[in-house]
């Protein structure tokens, strides 16, 4: 069956990307001092790569959750997360559902991010299962002109110990930016849906995110990223609003504090020597 998810109010974020919208500005990183190990530009680039991975997972989970809510509540439910230019097609084959999320040659999200290509989802058709494994892959996919390949496996619980939906994802992606720079990013990520599930208004959705992963830049430098304090993602904002992330390269570790809950591009770095610097996370300056 073929269906389009309507975006009744627009938003902000859309996806977060989503995000935003509101009113949060995209900004370039400031010129700040760097120590011998860490280049702030690379930290900012790794944040952009992390956003791509997060946004892909968010889209996939929203589409799946829409199917789940319709099936388990026995009533019609429509998420307003994706705009009308996105086409959702689901085909049932035996015990499996295959869903395509098609952004066409270019579909602009409410926050201004431009996606093209297709996200594929595959999962068992039994929507009453307490736990479900979802396979996610990409086809000719771009995110703000970044060509992205790869995929993820999500193990989704309808209700965790807190009574909230939760997904544990193992993801691996490669990206090629418009300037020719390349990067790979992998990770294990837990996303707990703590607010807004089933409301039909995506802008009130809130997630707590934890996990670890790696970012490898064009030069082959590897940055390890690990959540120290859960990252709070509010879909009404483009940026992570709070939480602490540690980033390690070689034997040095730097921490990135996303703030006190305000929707802004600011982050506070603490270097190995104890010095601190405020940076602005671009999250795709358009």
UniProtKB/TrEMBL annotation:
Superkingdom of this protein's organism: Bacteria
Record's keyword terms, sorted: Signal
Residues of the signal peptide: 1-22
Keyword Signal: yes
Name of the molecule in the record: Lipoprotein
Originating organism: Arenibacter palladensis
């Amino acid at each position: 069956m073929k269906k389009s998810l309507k975006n009744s109010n627009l938003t902000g974020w859309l996806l977060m990307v989503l995000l935003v919208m509101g009113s949060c500005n995209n900004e370039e990183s400031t010129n700040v001092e760097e120590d011998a190990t860490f280049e702030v530009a690379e930290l900012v680039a790794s944040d952009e790569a992390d956003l791509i991975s997060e946004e892909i997972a968010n889209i996939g989970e929203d589409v799946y959750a829409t199917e789940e809510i319709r099936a388990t509540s026995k009533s019609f439910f429509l998420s307003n997360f994706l705009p009308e230019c996105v086409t959702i097609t689901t085909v049932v084959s035996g015990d499996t559902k295959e869903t395509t999320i098609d952004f066409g040659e270019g579909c602009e999200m409410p926050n201004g991010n431009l996606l093209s290509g297709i996200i594929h989802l595959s999962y068992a058709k039994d929507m009453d299962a307490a736990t479900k494994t979802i396979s996610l892959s990409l086809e000719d996919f771009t995110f703000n002109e970044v060509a992205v390949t790869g995929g993820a496996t999500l193990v989704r619980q309808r209700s965790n110990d807190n009574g909230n939906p939760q997904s544990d994802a193992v993801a691996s992606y490669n990206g090629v930016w418009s300037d020719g720079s390349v990067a790979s990013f992998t990770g294990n990520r837990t996303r707990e849906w703590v607010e807004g599930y089933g409301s039909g208004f995506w802008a009130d959705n809130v997630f707590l995110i934890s996990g670890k992963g790696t970012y490898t830049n064009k030069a082959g430098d590897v940055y390890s990223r690990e959540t120290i304090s859960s990252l709070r993602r509010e879909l009404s904002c483009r940026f992570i609003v709070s939480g602490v992330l540690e980033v390690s390269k070689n034997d040095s570790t730097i921490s990135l504090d996303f703030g006190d809950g305000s929707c802004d591009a600011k982050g506070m770095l603490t270097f190995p020597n104890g010095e601190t610097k405020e940076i602005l996370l671009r999250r795709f300056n358009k």
